[in-house]
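Case study B.
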Amino acid sequence: MSRRMDIALCVNGERVNETVPTRISLVDFIRDTLGLTGSHVGCEHGVCGACTLEVDGKMVRGCLMLAVQANGANITTIEGLTASNRAAALQAAFHEHNALQCGYCTSGMIASALQYIESGGAANRQKIREHISGNYCRCTGYQAIVDAIESVIEGQENS
Amino acid sequence: MKALDFDYVRPATLDAALQELENTDANARAIAGGQSLVAMMNFRLAQPERLVDLSDIAALRFVRDIGDAIEIGAMTTFADLERSELVGEHFPLLRAALPHIAHPSIRSRGTIGGSAALADPAAEVPALLLAANARLNIVSTAGSRTMDAHNFIVGTYETALKASELLRSITIPKPPANARFAFCELARRHGDYAMVGVAMAADSVVPITNLRVVLFAIGDTAMRAAAAEAAMDGTAREDAGARETALAALEELDFRADLNAGVDTKRHLSRVILKRAFAELTE
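Model:
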């Protein structure tokens, strides 16, 4: 009989009240309880980055946070980043540069890239690679992903 | 894998948290950033029955100037520390190490106290504490005590913390005016656990004075290369013979293989990073 707790939080701008097992991870809660399956589960120990999403304005690993720890938190998933157009430039660039194939890494990749761009990261391929080194991609070989991120930053600089 | 079941509490104050840990019926374990502990729970390598979440305790999250030192609260996140001007000014070893500590999404929740209390042999923080002559400030319901870093770090995932104690803060003495530092880490991918790493500090390099050479990811714990330090202490920075003796003294250390590399590789790479770190220290 698993131990359960009530949590109240905000997800993509909407108030959520649920009773959850203490042991469920934030990303499992987001996916299985709330049906927001845009965030993905990969390694469950923080290295692959597929679960990266925003909590209280910071990008975090959804697999290394418990849902009960998110009581009172403000969460934005890839669905929220899309609805608010916050990821629009990145998403368009990923599409244009063919920066995804299976798409499994993509939501976490976009979250990480967004953090880099929004904190004023430079259009420097080495620095971009360092920043996304915690987001594994098995399909693309990363080149197109770096191209896409670089193009968004250069696009901002030129606009 | 998914974690096993457990009770979860999130006390609002340090006193409440200490009471939770004192309650011997509960078999409780503190959770700080969770960036190591939740991973271990997901692997079921850790199976706490009760988690005491420290993240609401604002009194544990700070960086302050206390005159001849800076004091860092145990729950201060690596992201906080990246932004801290006091760290930049008075703890340059940490500033140098921060980009190597996992990834930005992990640094947003991982804490310096959590890393210190875990004593992962491949982690940067224990090595930084040894190199900086840090003092660990510990509390329990019985009171408080302070330990030097070298007494605090006991073994692999083992510190001097008792089950009912919490690390409250870390005190970093401000380095003297002519102090020099070097940090070097090798990993397969940026942000991976280190294959080998070194944190190095000296009060001066004219001549080399009070040298600390702390290696990590090579053995059971972060460790000072005492023989290497002795070979170079008091020597001129250009003294290549002293440097060669120091590098040879690495042989005395107790290297252990891990998932990243075998003993021969670690021994070889330790020489590589020590050379680089000596060059950076004395430039």
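Strands of chain A lie at 4-11, 14-21, 52-55, 58-61, 74-76. The remaining cases will be described in the next quarterly update.
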